[in-house]
Design goal:
The protein is 71% helix and 0% strand. Helix 1 packs across helix 6 and helix 3 packs antiparallel against helix 4. The two termini are 22 Å apart. The mean pLDDT is 90.
Length: 284
C-alpha cells in the first residue's frame, strides 16, 4: 500500500470515527451515572434530521447544529423522565426512543419537503466546510508532495470544525470525570447511589445532568453526519452508529481515552470497507 493511500484511509477513518466518538462519550456520561442509554441511535438520528431540516430551511449551519442539539436533549429528557423520575425500564425506554425517531423523522421530512423522507441538499452556507490549514497542498499537488507535507495536508488538515471538536471532547471528558468534584459525584452515583443520597447530594439531579450532556454530544454527532459527512438527511442515515458506539464503549471499559482508540478502530474498519469493497480479488 502506498503511503498516500494509507493516509487517505486514515483520513477517512478519522471522519467516520467522529460520530462514533461523540455518541460513545454520550453513552459514557450516562453509564457513569447509572443510566443505560440504548436510545443513542434514536437521538443521533433525530439530531441528524432536525439539523439538516433547519439548515435547509434557514440556510445557516449553526442554527441547524443548535436545533439538532435541542432535539437530542429533548429525547434525552424523555428518556430521563421514564428511567429516572418514573423509574421505568431503561432498555424499554431507549428502544421506544429509537422507534420513535426512526418513524417520526421520515414522516416529518416527507410532510415538510415531499422528497421521499429526505431533506434537500444543503448549499455551502448550510453545511460545515473543511478547514484547510496554512500551507496545505491541494489534491492535485498531493502526489508530488513529500511524506511530511502529505501527512500534514491529508491527515491533519481538511477536516470540518466538528471533527476537531470531537477530538477535544476526549480530554475534556476525562478531566470532568476524573479531575472535578462533579465527575467524582457522577461516578459515585453510578456505583453507589444510596451513599450519594445519604451525603445530601441529589442523585436525580446528577443523573439528569448526565443524560443532558449525552444529549448535547449526540446532537453534535447527528449534526455532523447530516451537515458535514453528508449534505442532507436520508432515511435511517445513522445506520446503526448508535449501537456501534455502545459496543465501542463496552469495548473501551467506559474510559474516555480507550473510547477514542475503540472508535478509531471501528472507523478504520469502515474506511477499509469503503475503500476496498470494489477491488476484484484474483480467482484461485
Amino acid at each position: 500500500m502506498e503511503f498516500l493511500t494509507l493516509l487517505q484511509v486514515l483520513d477517512s477513518s478519522l471522519r467516520l470515527a467522529t460520530p462514533l466518538l461523540l455518541v460513545c462519550l454520550a453513552g459514557l456520561f450516562s453509564e457513569r451515572a447509572g443510566i443505560f442509554d440504548i436510545g443513542l441511535e434514536g437521538k443521533l438520528l433525530a439530531a441528524a434530521f432536525v439539523s439538516a431540516a433547519f439548515a435547509a430551511i434557514t440556510g445557516s449551519v449553526w442554527l441547524g447544529l443548535l436545533a439538532g442539539i435541542l432535539a437530542s436533549i429533548m429525547l434525552s429528557l424523555l428518556h430521563g423522565l421514564a428511567s429516572i423520575t418514573l423509574r421505568g425500564d431503561q432498555i424499554i425506554s431507549g428502544v421506544a426512543i429509537n422507534f420513535l425517531a426512526a418513524g417520526l423523522t421520515v414522516v416529518v421530512a416527507q410532510d415538510l419537503f415531499g422528497q421521499g423522507g429526505r431533506t434537500p441538499p444543503l448549499k455551502s452556507g448550510g453545511r460545515f466546510e473543511p478547514i484547510n490549514f496554512p500551507g496545505a497542498t491541494t489534491s492535485k499537488e498531493m502526489n508530488e508532495a513529500g511524506p511530511l507535507m502529505q501527512f500534514y495536508s491529508e491527515l491533519l488538515s481538511g477536516h470540518s470544525l466538528l471533527v476537531y471538536l470531537a477530538l477535544l471532547t476526549v480530554p475534556i471528558s476525562w478531566f470532568i470525570l476524573y479531575k472535578t468534584r462533579y465527575g467524582l459525584r457522577l461516578r459515585a452515583v453510578g456505583e453507589n447511589p444510596a451513599a450519594v443520597d445519604t451525603a445530601g447530594i441529589s442523585v436525580r439531579g446528577l443523573r439528569y445532568s448526565a443524560v443532558i450532556i449525552g444529549g448535547v454530544l449526540c446532537g453534535i454527532a447527528g449534526a455532523y453526519i447530516a451537515t458535514s459527512l453528508q449534505a442532507n438527511f436520508t432515511k435511517d442515515m445513522s445506520a446503526g452508529r448508535g449501537f456501534i458506539a455502545l459496543a465501542a464503549l463496552i469495548f473501551a471499559k467506559w474510559r474516555p481515552w480507550y473510547a477514542l482508540s475503540a472508535c478509531l478502530l471501528f472507523g478504520f474498519f469502515f474506511a477499509v470497507d469503503t475503500r476496498f469493497q470494489n477491488i476484484l480479488l484474483p480467482a484461485w
